[in-house]
Amino acid sequence: MISQDLKSLEEKSIYVIREAKIKFPKIAALWSMGKDSTAMLALARKAFLGKVPFPVIHIDNGIDFPETYKFREELAKKWKLDLIVPKSEIKPELSGFACCGANKTVALKKVMKSYGFDALIVSIRRDEHGIRAKERYMSPRDKNFKWDYKDQPAELWDDYSSKLDTKGHIRVHPLLDWNEIDIWNFIKKEKVPMNPLYFARDGHRYRSLGCLHCTVPLKSKVKDINGIIRELETTKIEERSGREQDKEKAYVMQKLRALGYM
Amino acid sequence: MIIKNITLLGHKDHGKSTLIGNLLIQTKSVTPARINEAKKTSKKLGRQFEPGYILDSFSEEREQEMTIDTTRAEMAYKDLAFAFIDVPGHEELIKNMISGASYAEIALLMVSAKKEEGIKDQTKRHLFIAKMLGINKLIIAVNKMDLVGYSEDRFNQIRKELGGFIAKIGFKASNFYFVPVSAYNADNLIKKSGDMSWYKGKPLVELLYEQAKMEDKRKSTAPLRIVIQGAIESGRQTVVGKVISGRVKTGSMVSILPFGYKARIESIVVKGKKAKSAGLSDDVALTFESRVSGNLRGTVVAEGGEAPKLTDKINSLIFVTGGIKKPLKLRINGNEVKCKALEIAEQVDTTTGDANEKKGAEVLNAVRARIVLEKKVPIEDFDEVKELGRFVLYGNNKFAGIGIISP
To answer: Which residue from A206, B75, B170, B212 could staple onto B29, CB 3.0 to 4.6 Å apart?
Structure first.
């Protein structure tokens, strides 16, 4: 995996986050307490003089890891986050694709509507998935959260989408250019507090964090950030290999995202 | 590693996705899982293995064998990394092509050597757009050489015909190179091909590497220009933006355009840390010794040199992508300004580079036009300061074109 130049990555992300906040004052961010969305909050603090200038949303399905909840409380207090926690309901009869769609997407729709948010920062990266690689930095969703991936707006130079459909919202993707290893290089450099699940216990660690039901750890002895970076430099395994919903069948990510999933 | 963005260009089916896919495979830049997935898809669709499936991820893209939207793939080479931007070659997807290509500093054009394919209108149009986007470095890969018996004559024929057009639209001879390849068989991609011993040049990646290593001429001694995104609340008035040329220092007296008044820089924050100065491409948060008034979005902080022009009348070259319909708006550096008038002086055929007297704005062609804006904005000629010399045009809220400001 290629480590990119952090200076230009940070500059681009800071530019996009500032642009989003200035263009869309009623903006919020999704925070899963994972490495990417936590790194994004650290970048937002750099962009806005040490303060995260928008509410952060954790869609709580009640089955995230205990470590994740603890990490949420600690960092929310330390960084004075304006935290919104909508509950989503897990339906035992659903799993994978149907579960992510019904659970996270539905809860997100509700919270966006009740707070009147018109833009949402989502910390996806191109290298995670072929479908995410097709995204714009700022991408409109219609009122049903649908992503019209066949007709995305032009986005060039530093000119980003304005909101065209008044009932929809804009997804903002400030980390689009980052690779997984860049996130860890940044976390190391900036000493960003991290969820302990990423570090090995009993010979396993999590590389990508979802909920308890659908996330499997990988074999690893790595206990610190330097170890993670070394592991990623040579790995041949895909980051989301431990995420069930991605692999049920072909194009499942495309369908999930078209319906409003992150 | 420093990443160099390279955009693919060219007509549909001339092999853009195949080329990137195979470069990634040859240099082991993709995981075996991704290759296997592409293999499985090829099999499922009852086709031979297609390296392009590594990039084309939408179901429609694979089933219809076309790239719909832009994507990016990285490859390390020596001390650099290349990020290849794959773009659709279909005419109707030109806005996706422009979006992808606008981030590149090098263009890699694919043109098929096959008799029935060859140089198409779209081949030349993509070159025209690349030049307008400010891309100055270009490699032309003459593809599918295996299907024309590795013919040197065919390669030379394409080189001669296309070379003339490339020079005509303004690329410098030292900044473009032709290389014969077979993207599918990986001929002349990483290693020189045994089937084309008549080709004395370097393989494709080497040519890309040489171009990537050539430094941008823009000096840090250029006059200071900061594009301001807006003001943020933090008790004290703070403006944020990006340095696009020169250096800003605390204590400097700067002009704020279009207002024209001066202010002294009190403090500078770069990436969250206090700094005494900031340079090219730095994100900045600035405070001034005294409060400045007015809406600061889209303003320019300048010091030294000849100040940017403040004008409501601009001469431009516009590549037309949609209807030039009212209300017509021009977006330039965060400013969204209404156009009071747009008068076309001449049309430029993007497949020949020639001007004609037609006064209409046809999609996929270019026009030279004089625009009258509702208010004055700070601008510079595109050739001087790119960021202040380019704009995006919206007609009736739809993407209508990209423009550059020319004298």
So the answer is: B75
Predicted ipTM of the assembly: 0.90
Provide the shortest C-alpha distance from residue A253 to chain B (in Å): 10
Q: If you measure CA to CA, which chain A residue comes closest to B386?
A: A157
Q: Does A152 touch chain B (CB under 8 A)?
A: yes
Collect all residues of chain B within an 8 Å Cβ-Cβ radius of residue A179. 74
Residue of B nearest to A236 (CA): B31
Q: Residues of chain B whose pLDDT is less than 50?
A: none
What mean pLDDT is reported for chain A? 86
Q: Can you tell me which residue has the tokens 């992808």?
A: B100
Give the residue from chain A lying closest to B271, CA to CA.
A46
Please tell me the predicted confidence (pLDDT) of residue A21. Answer: 96
Q: Closest by alpha carbon to B378, among B334, B338, B346?
A: B334
B25 and B153 belong to one structural domain: yes
Determine contact: B98 vs chain A, CB below 8 A: yes
Other CB atoms within a 10 A radius of the CB of residue B338 amount to: 13
CATH number at residue B277: 2.40.30.10
Residue-level pLDDT at B271: 97
For chain B positions 234-253, those within 8 Å of chain A (CB to CB) are 234, 238, 240, 242
State pLDDT tens for residues B286-338.
Answer: 999 998 888 899 999 999 777 889 999 999 999 999 999 999 999 998 899 99
Contact between B99 and A136 using a beta-carbon 8 Å cutoff: yes
Question: What count of other Cβ atoms lies within 10 Å of the Cβ of residue B213?
Answer: 11
Alpha-carbon span A217 to A208, nearest angstrom: 8
Domain end (from B303, B327, B342): B303
- Check CB contact of A238 with chain B, cutoff 8 Å: yes
Residue with tokens 């995230």: A64
Cα distances (Å, whole numbers) of residue B257 to A183, B99, B241, B303: 37, 28, 14, 11
CA B79 from centroid of its chain's CA atoms? 23
Q: Is residue B219 part of a domain?
A: no
Question: How close is the nearest chain B Cα to the Cα of A60, in Å?
Answer: 30
Quote the pLDDT of residue A248. Answer: 45
Domain assignment present for B248? yes
Per-residue model confidence (pLDDT) at position B174: 81
- Which residue, of B303, B326, B360, is where some domain finishes? B303
If 0-12 CB within 10 Å is exposed, 13-18 middle and 19+ buried, where does residue B157 land?
Answer: middle
Whether residues B241 and B112 share a domain: the answer is no
Contacts of B238 in chain A (CB under 8 A): 49
Cβ–Cβ contact B63 with A under 8 A = no
Gap between the Cα atoms of B393 and B400, Å rounded: 5
The segments of chain A whose pLDDT lies below 50 read 247-248
* Helix (H/G/I), strand (E/B), else coil: B157: helix
**Which amino acid would we find at residue B332?**
I
**Whether residues B299 and B319 fall in one domain:** no
Please give the DSSP secondary-structure letter assigned to residue A4: P
List of residues 6+ apart from A23 with CB closer than 8 A: A119, A160, A162
Nearest residue, CB atoms, A18 vs list B240, B271, B333:
B240
Distance of CA B70 to the CA centre of its chain: 12
Taking an 8 Å cut-off on Cβ atoms, the answer to whether B272 and A126 are in contact is: no
Domain ranges of chain A: 6-179+248-258, 195-245
- Binary contact (B269, A49; C-beta < 8 A): yes
Total number of domains in chain B:
3
* A203 burial via Cβ count (<10 Å: 0-12, 13-18, 19+): exposed
